[in-house]
Amino acid sequence: MTEKQNDTTHFGYKTVAADEKAGLVANVFHSVAAKYDIMNDMMSMGIHRLWKRQTIASSGVRAGHSVLDLAGGTGDLTAKFSELVGENGKVVLGDINDSMLKVGREKLRNRGLVSNIEYIQMNAEALPFPDNTFDVITIAFGLRNVTDKDKALRSMFRVLKPGGRLLVLEFSKPEHEALSKAYDFYSFNILPTMGQLIANDAESYRYLAESIRMHPDQDTLKGMMLEAGFEQVTYQNMTGGIVALHRGFKY
Amino acid sequence: MLPTFLGALVEQALNQIVCLSPKLRHALAPLKLKTLVIHIRDWQQQIGLVYSGKHFHLFLNYQEKGDCWVSADFNTLTSLQDPSRLTQLIRQNKLDLEGDIHLAQGFSNAFSELEIDWAEHISTYLGDAPAQQLIDSLNATSIRAKHHAQTLSAMASQLCQDELRITIHPLELSQFTAHTRELTHRVNSLEQRINALLNIKE
Ligand SMILES: C[S@@+](CC[C@H](N)C(=O)[O-])C[C@H]1O[C@@H](n2cnc3c(N)ncnc32)[C@H](O)[C@@H]1O
After folding, report:
1. Cβ–Cβ contacts within 10 Å for residue B113, how many?
2. In b/e form, how buried is each residue of B43-58, taking b as 16+ CB within 10 angstroms?
3. What is the pLDDT of residues B16-74, one digit of tens each?
4. Best mutation site among A25, A98, A122, A153 for ligand 1, i.e. most ligand atoms within 8 A of its Cβ?
5. Could you say which of A8, A201, B59, B136 has the lowest number of CB atoms within 10 Å?
6. DSSP-assigned states of every residue in chain A
7. Rg of chain A on CA atoms, in Å
8. Mutate to test the pocket of ligand 1, among A100, A129, A136 (most ligand atoms within 8 A of CB)
9. What is the C-alpha to C-alpha distance for residues B12 and B184, in angstroms, rounded to an integer?
């Protein structure tokens, strides 16, 4: 299952013209940017920190590495990577949305993290880097928002150094029926309400819930990564498969 | 997820300790950005530990071998207190080492020299009398820490006699693990005491 059909694509459950989607997604994150971090903690009850922690652990990042935190938003992963690569390494926080980048930049500056971080606005589908640039690329809760996922994966493959690895952290398909039901109730009822209360924006959070359901499940995404050229692709379910961490290598 | 969560807790405790001890920061400086990996065989768990110059990062389910890799059963790791068994353990395949053993030694030494001015930190919150009470109870720890340091040097000489080519040892890693555990424990009970004292004050 690939989600692109000719020139329409999904925006949540709505089907929209492909070139409209990027703009619609941008709107969602513009309206969410300022409250993004608080919402993240509220929505996932803080568990997103553990998912991200496991992503860093699986990245094998070392001092001196070049890292791309793609769709990096407010820079949670970037902050950790910046410390771990040290002054001889480099982290690029890349996002399509400059509101998110601004929030991220401000947050990281306030924490005294600057020297080895670059903030670049970019579209995951056409990464503005030469071939073989990065040791590690992460895309956390970002791939489901990308219009042409296959194109984005190929682009990531291209800019990854041989020996480098890609980590995709994304909502996925819960392993058990009961969990799946509870999770549905949570995301379609509780989540938009919380979005309304905290960020005064139920619609954006309804989109988030819907986009999660439209995202390819574990094995489909694994297949897409293989298709894009990645090798040794594996995934690890977290929190019962609500989230999955996919990892692939370029050789 | 649970191990990841526990890892985050231990990491937080370690970072609290780092905050409180300038001496520890100093001792850790040369180990900056080097990864120590401890493979606990019977837990099927591998732990990565990095000091970034500011914070500790502790990772569970760590899959790389880092700059120094030590592998053994949990009991073996903790029983490493007895240095005479070490050569034997390696020969019996109960213990594996790879990479820069100085790294394990470095971490271990850094923690064995740990001195935190608890009285100062705590009196800010509690006033002098309760602080003193806490310090008294903590003195026991520092005596124990000194004892550890002595055992450590005894082990070192023992090791050389054991004709091991490597100068430094996972003995110290076990020391380090033990210290960390003890410190975590101490910090936790300290926190409980502080909470209790705060309740009394209110
Ligand atoms: C849910 S946020 C994730 C932020 C961060 N990685 C995290 O885990 O907290 C998704 C991000 O993806 C970005 N994004 C959406 N489409 C993108 C694209 N085509 N290229 C790059 N970034 C994109 C959005 O602007 C948003 O900041």
Report:
1. 14
2. eeebbbbbbbeebbbb
3. 888 888 888 888 999 999 999 999 998 888 999 999 998 999 998 899 999 999 898 88
4. A25
5. B136
6. --S-BTTEEEETTEEEEHHHHHHHHHHHHHHHGGGHHHHHHHHHTTHHHHHHHHHHHHHT--TT-EEEEET-TT-HHHHHHHHHH-TTSEEEEEES-HHHHHHHHHHHHHTT--TTEEEEE--TTS--S-SS-EEEEEEES-GGG-S-HHHHHHHHHHHEEEEEEEEEEEE---SSHHHHHHHHHIIIIIHHHHHHHHHS-HHHHHHHHHHHHHS--HHHHHHHHHHTT-EEEEEEEEGGGTEEEEEEE--
7. 17
8. A100
9. 9
For residue B5, give the chain A residue with the closest CA: A50
Which pLDDT tens digit goes with each residue over A62-85? 999 999 999 998 899 999 999 999
Distance between CA A194 and CA A42 in Å, rounded? 8
- CA dist list (Å): A23 to A37, A43, A100, A101, A123: 22, 24, 14, 16, 12
Say whether the ipTM exceeds 0.90: no
CA of A96 relative to ligand 1 center, distance in Å: 7
> What type of residue is A170?
E
Per-residue buried b or exposed e for A11-49, using 16+ beta carbons within 10 Å of the residue's own CB: bbeeeeeeeebbebbbebbebbbebbbebbebbbeebbe
Cβ-based neighbours of A243, under 8 Å, separated by 6 or more: A51, A169, A170, A171, A172, A237
A129: tokens are 């880097």
* Domains, in order of start, for chain A: 8-175+205-249 (3.40.50.150)
- Residues of chain A in contact with residue B57, where contact means CB-CB under 8 angstroms, are 56, 80, 83-84
CA of A89 to the centre of ligand 1 (A): 23
